[in-house]
Design a protein that fits this description.
single chain; three-stranded antiparallel beta sheet; three-stranded parallel beta sheet; 10 helices
């Protein structure tokens, strides 16, 4: 806003005239209370130490020396210990509206001096059940972050990390296997930490529809059969999750899979690189990452 820039420039000029160091930054903010004006500055408090004077006295000198162009402010007041409050002239407020209408979607955009490549990883729900409200919240926040970064001129990639390996997916396979057995009239129970949702029944039904009732006779610990259970269950839930996100107008550029980290030995390669630069160490029978070297409160 032109008025804000004019006020900041004039405050900087007056501060320099009073003998303020060049390092002093002029801050302007919008007061919470409307009675405190449209803009306010704590410049007098900032200058109190270098000028060796009370903030209120400095504020009085600043206000007395201000020479703002006509039509910028309607009034300037000193409040409390030395805050300076500015009440903008009506014409300045109308000018802001004209700027918004003229610039449209571009209003407020300031292209960065150095555009960054930014990877925003969000949602990343486990493929072991439908999305819930907390996932929706993460989707909304992550998408807003990505859109703001793009709007500011950065190159953004949206990533969804799929946790398709580990104990949680094993419990899903066991849960679907139990439902398959139940569907053909056999006694079977969901594991204690398994998944009870109706979607597990639907996955079991689809497996039997595709592979026939004899699929229930196949041992779940057989590698080929286990893979069928795993792949169908994961894909079913991923399709459902992606459909929900699409309906929510959240898109992703890349889906990364935990399973690939193991299949392609990416974890081993990463650990080798970390060892080469001294970022990992062994202690108490475990491998540790030196996260304290990057600001963490402890190593992990």
């Amino acid at each position: 806003m032109a008025a804000q820039e004019a006020i900041r420039a004039e405050l900087a000029r007056v501060a320099a005239m009073l003998g303020a160091p060049a390092s002093v930054v002029v801050e302007l903010e919008t007061p919470r209370e409307k009675s405190h004006g449209d803009l306010a500055t704590n410049l007098a408090m900032t200058l109190s130490k270098p000028l060796r004077a009370a903030p209120r006295q400095i504020a009085e000198k600043i206000v007395a020396a201000l020479a703002l162009p006509p039509g910028v402010v309607a009034a300037v007041e000193i409040a409390g210990p030395g805050f300076i409050n500015f009440f903008l002239a009506t014409g300045q407020l109308a000018e802001t509206v004209r700027e918004i209408l003229a610039q449209g979607r571009e209003f407020g955009r300031t292209p960065p001096a150095n555009a960054l490549k930014v990877n925003v990883e969000f949602v990343s729900a486990n493929p072991t059940g439908p999305l819930h409200v907390a996932h929706g919240r993460g989707a909304a926040l992550g998408d807003c972050v990505a859109r703001l970064l793009e709007w500011l001129g950065h190159q953004v990639t949206r990533e969804f990390y799929v946790n398709d390996a580990g104990m949680q997916t094993e419990r899903l396979v066991e849960s679907v296997h139990a439902r398959v057995q139940q569907a053909v009239g056999r006694e079977a129970s969901i594991p204690e930490e398994g998944y009870q949702g109706a979607y597990v029944v639907e996955i079991a039904r689809k497996l039997l529809d595709v592979h026939g009732l004899s699929f229930a006779d196949r041992a779940v610990d057989d590698d080929a059969t286990h893979f069928v259970y795993w792949e169908n269950s994961i894909q079913f839930l991923r399709r459902e999750q992606e459909a929900d996100l699409e309906a929510f107008r959240v898109r992703f550029d890349r889906f990364s899979f935990e399973r690939d980290l193991y299949l392609e030995n990416k974890l081993d390669h990463l650990l080798d690189r970390l060892r080469a630069v001294g970022s990992v160490f062994e202690e108490d029978g475990a491998l540790w990452l030196r996260t304290t070297a990057h600001g963490d409160d402890k190593d992990r």
